[in-house]
């Protein structure tokens, strides 16, 4: 116990994200390599890194909602779409800077997610999953059936490039630094959330919502807040996506994309921010491999047709999810934690 009367293993000590100098050094080296990446690797790699950073923001939000709060969410792509359309409309029709459009996109998606989060107070499990799928179809229905002058309909919306003090973020390298800055802020915020009283409330509700309610936690508000935060992250990621692609269409935010985000947190490990980042890296690498190899296979075996890439990606990712659910249901971070524990107590068995 230290002089202040707090044990070293208390909540205050647990709030420290970086506990050793080696961890701090590793983080500094990693961040420095990322900042130098546009000068070290090709533009193709930078494009992949841009996709990974945007996916990381969205997957981290889903991790808070599903991994920490235990609320099944199969509508993350719809929340991402709300943010993308909000940023696109604000940027193209009002000329607002991305410093305003990105937060506003997150807020609009958070409001949309909060409406579906209110239903989580009364339903759970399979029925909650169906409700979030309904959000996916409601988003598509609204975009395609509202007047085309509002959301562009099936034609989509063209997005002007992000601009700050006359600097236009047009090239892959300039967009890389924009995505890096926003994703770093969002990931750091996620670590703060899960270490705060809100994060503790999420975990308590996930483990046993009845016991959490007895302890004085507002279970309904906690579940709704989990959807709000998860949707906010998705909306910010959608805004980054809009500025990266410079075009927003409803077919970019389908149920398949929501399943991809779920796969990322399953592979990386539920209930771990770092696990979500690892899952993003692995799933995106698998997608890139399939997208690269698929056309060659289609050309070599003509009877497979040109849809082999899309079908093969879904089959492989579905197989990856199934294998992890069977062989490593707690994800790669759980296996990494076991290896760390084994190393610390070696050569003793326990």
UniProtKB/TrEMBL annotation:
Domain of life (superkingdom): Bacteria
Subcellular location: Cell membrane
Gene Ontology cellular-component annotations: plasma membrane
Residue intervals passing through the bilayer: 22-41, 47-65, 97-118, 125-144, 176-194, 224-244, 256-283, 304-327
GO molecular function annotation: branched-chain amino acid transmembrane transporter activity
Record flagged with keyword Cell membrane: yes
Protein's UniProt keywords contain Cell membrane: yes
Main subcellular location: membrane
Pfam families reported in the protein's UniProt record: BPD_transp_2
Keywords, sorted A to Z: Cell membrane, Membrane, Transmembrane, Transmembrane helix
Membrane topology note: Multi-pass membrane protein
Stated name of the protein: Branched-chain amino acid ABC transporter permease
Organism: Pseudooceanicola lipolyticus
């Amino acid at each position: 116990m230290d002089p202040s009367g707090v044990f070293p293993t208390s909540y205050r000590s647990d709030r420290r994200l970086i506990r050793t100098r080696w961890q701090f050094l590793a983080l500094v080296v990693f961040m420095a390599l990322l900042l130098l990446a546009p000068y070290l690797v090709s533009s193709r790699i930078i494009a992949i890194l841009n996709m990974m950073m945007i996916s990381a923001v969205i997957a981290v939000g889903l991790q808070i909602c599903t991994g920490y709060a235990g609320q099944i969410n199969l509508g993350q792509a719809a929340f991402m779409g709300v943010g993308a359309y909000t940023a696109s409309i604000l940027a193209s029709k009002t000329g607002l800077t991305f410093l305003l459009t990105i937060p506003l996109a997150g807020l609009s998606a958070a409001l949309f997610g909060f409406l579906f989060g209110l239903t989580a107070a009364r339903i759970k499990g399979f029925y909650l999953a169906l409700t979030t799928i309904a959000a996916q179809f409601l988003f598509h229905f609204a975009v395609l059936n509202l007047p085309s002058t509002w959301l562009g309909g099936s034609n989509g919306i063209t997005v002007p490039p992000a601009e700050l003090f006359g600097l236009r973020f047009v090239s892959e390298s300039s967009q890389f630094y924009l995505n890096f800055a926003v994703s770093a802020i969002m990931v750091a915020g996620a670590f703060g959330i899960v270490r705060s009283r809100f994060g503790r409330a999420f975990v308590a509700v996930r483990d046993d919502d009845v016991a959490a309610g007895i302890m004085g936690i507002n279970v309904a508000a906690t579940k709704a807040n989990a959807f709000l935060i998860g949707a906010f992250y998705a909306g910010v990621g959608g805004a980054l996506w809009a500025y990266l692609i410079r075009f927003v269409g409803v077919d970019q935010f389908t149920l398949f994309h929501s399943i991809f985000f779920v796969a990322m947190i399953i592979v990386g490990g539920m209930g771990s921010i770092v696990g979500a980042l690892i899952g993003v890296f692995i799933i995106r690498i698998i997608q890139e491999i399939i997208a690269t190899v698929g056309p060659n296979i289609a050309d070599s075996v003509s009877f497979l047709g040109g849809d082999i890439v899309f079908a093969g990606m879904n089959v492989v990712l579905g197989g990856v999810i199934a294998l992890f659910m069977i062989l490593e249901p707690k994800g790669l971070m759980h296996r990494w934690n076991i290896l760390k524990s084994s190393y610390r107590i070696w050569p003793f068995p326990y």
